[in-house]
DNA sequence: TTTACAATCCCCTATAAGGGGGGGATGGAC
DNA sequence: GTCCATCCCCCCCTTATAGGGGATTGTAAA
């Protein structure tokens, strides 16, 4: 039973080459190839492939935009992005939409085939440069607590604040008076350059300043 | 100029084998190997390696816990986790702390060497199973807005709320009355099962329900 | 057509939170 | 010793927010 593929790629030469190469293998069979994703939803539904190779920059409609539609109709389908773009916006939009892999065209086509193999085995192939960006998104800013000169006590208060707790509750949790807690928060807001608790929570969580 | 390595691994046989194998290569030189991370900070500072192979489960102290210390003293150092654990908690704690790669021991040792190569070239090696979990952490984000049955307008309001904006400001931004905005927020709070804006921000950002 | 609901606006009240003071105790740095 | 930072506590006052009520449109489904 060959793995059935559909390819969306607007470069005719590249697409046809992929079709020929993949069809010559024992493992893969290209059941459809298209230069755009304007009718991707129906095409995928009709052809019912196991895997999709998806370019991003195509005439008419962005490749990323069809991912949700496809994943919704058949969640177990594997979508491998195959593109020249390595800007974070496109990467994260693709991955969030549900892409299972992200391979850059600038790497050798060999890598694409290895990636397909990896997907077949249940992995998630990412080009090294992509993996690096993905990992970087996890790295929390090193010791931002120091950066803002927060005292240990202020950090304790802040940690509870970003859980959404009320001032009253935070005070109780730390066994200090309500007003003391407010005083700490006042100092925290000053140091973080924000004006209220909501801003503080937003800033801390968005920048991943504290995270344990 | 060989790439200088330090290895933290409590399994004597495994560690010594890695030392021998890596030292036999042209590219690597193991400048230190230790069965625990109790003095990792100083050891790394003294030996000043380019790369670190780091186990997680070691006697005395968790491997993950020394990552921040190491990264702080030398941010450009590459840390590759080499462990048997594939539970999400350890993975994400490692990556958040600053790990540059995460390789499972159950894969062949060959893979570790490939991973080191990849790091040398500026990549970020992840075992397929790990990469899949990392990608999965991006995927869930998509449908969460739907999960809570938020209307498009409510999502708009929520997006502004999680930036830390005041109700007044949000209302102005959306060209609606203050009370309308409050009404939306009331519905949002109900749907998210929270009692106030701070809780809502905390919940949304912590669960990555919305993020564009 | 009736029902349902999203989106809009308004009123009122109680509580939570922010902003401004001041003061006292500790412990380390100079 | 003095100085300073930290941490803790208390007061007052204003604003922001939450929670409750109700009402009107338009739209879309039943």
TrEMBL record, chains A, B:
GO biological process: phosphorelay signal transduction system; regulation of DNA-templated transcription
Entry keyword Transcription regulation: yes
Entry keyword annotation includes Phosphoprotein: yes
GO molecular function, one term: DNA binding
Domain of life of the source: Bacteria
4-aspartylphosphate PTM positions: 55
Signal peptide start and end residues: none
Boundaries of every HTH luxR-type domain copy: 143-208
PROSITE patterns found in the cross-reference section: HTH_LUXR_2, RESPONSE_REGULATORY
InterPro entries to which the protein is assigned, alphabetical: CheY-like_superfamily, NreC/VraR/RcsB-like_REC, Sig_transdc_resp-reg_C-effctor, Sig_transdc_resp-reg_receiver, Tscrpt_reg_LuxR_C, WalR-like
Domain Response regulatory: 4-120
UniProt keyword terms in alphabetical order: DNA-binding, Phosphoprotein, Transcription, Transcription regulation
Name recorded for this polypeptide: Response regulator protein vraR
């Amino acid at each position: 039973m060959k793995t059935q593929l559909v390819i969306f790629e607007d470069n005719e030469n590249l697409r046809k080459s992929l079709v020929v190469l993949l069809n010559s293998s024992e493992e893969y069979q290209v059941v459809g190839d298209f230069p755009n994703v304007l009718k991707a939803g129906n095409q995928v539904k009709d052809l019912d492939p196991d895997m999709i190779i998806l370019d991003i920059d195509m005439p008419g409609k962005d490749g990323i935009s069809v991912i949700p539609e496809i994943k919704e109709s058949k969640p177990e389908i594997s979508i491998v992005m195959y593109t020249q773009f390595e800007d974070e916006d496109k990467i994260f939009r693709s991955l969030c939409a549900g892409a299972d892999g992200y391979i850059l065209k600038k790497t050798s086509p060999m890598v694409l085939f290895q990636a397909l193999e990896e997907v077949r085995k249940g992995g998630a192939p990412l080009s090294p440069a992509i993996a690096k960006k993905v990992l970087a998104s996890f790295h929390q800013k090193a010791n931002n607590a120091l950066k803002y000169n927060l005292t240990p006590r202020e950090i304790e208060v802040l940690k509870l604040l970003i859980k959404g707790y009320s001032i009253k509750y935070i005070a109780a949790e730390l066994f200090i008076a309500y007003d003391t807690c407010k005083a700490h928060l006042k100092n925290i807001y000053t140091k973080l350059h924000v004006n209220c608790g909501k801003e503080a929570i937003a800033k801390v969580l968005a920048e991943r300043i504290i995270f344990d």
